[in-house]
Amino acid sequence: MTVKVRPGPVGTPLTRWRAERLQELRRTELEHIRKQGEQWRTGLAGFITVILTAALVSGRTLITGHRPGTQVVIGILMLAAILAGAVGIFLSTRAANGFPPRPRRLTTEDLILNDRLAARRGARDLRTSILAAGAGLLLFTAATAVVWFGS
Q1: Where on the tree of life does the source sit, at the highest rank (predicted)?
Q2: What share of the chain is helix, strand, coil (3-state, %, to 5)?
């Protein structure tokens, strides 16, 4: 079987621009994800501070008028909200800083591949941290609702 190779179409300014833009996006992808991770980490730390402050300041006074079963539900919801926020902070910190690699001798191709894999891991960690933060907010809202409307 003979394979014939022919030249492809001539590049246009638009196709060249697209190729250059794609290379630039790939080159800065990891840096962009790291910055987003830092911003989410800061926001989640503030969120956890609000939850802990609300829990510590109000303390037992908010739940003393409730039945023991309702008090347990409030406590579980608050604890789950704090844990979800902590998971979010951990994952956003890992997205911002990466995970320490094992020392080894790398080629240029390995370095490029490592950056691509780190960007993928960082993006996955960042998405998961956002979901954890949303779950924490939902749990905190549920705990507040039980405090207000539970009996």
Answers
A1: Bacteria
A2: 80, 0, 20
Sign of CA dihedral 7, 8, 9, 12: negative
Distance CA 120, CA 99 (A): 12
pLDDT above 70 covers a percentage of the chain that reads 97
CA-CA distance, 91 to 19, in Å (whole number)? Answer: 32
Task: Write out pLDDT tens, residues 74-104.
Answer: 889 988 998 998 898 899 988 888 877 676 7
For residue 24, give both structure tokens: 């630039």
Is there a domain that residue 44 lies in? yes
The residue range of the domain holding 45 is 36-99+112-149
Which tens digits make up the pLDDT trace of 27-69? 888 888 889 888 888 888 888 888 778 777 776 677 778 888 9
Domain count, the chain: 1
Q: Is the dihedral of CA 61, 67, 71, 73 positive or negative?
A: negative
In a domain? residue 145: yes
- Amino acid (1-letter code) at residue 135: A
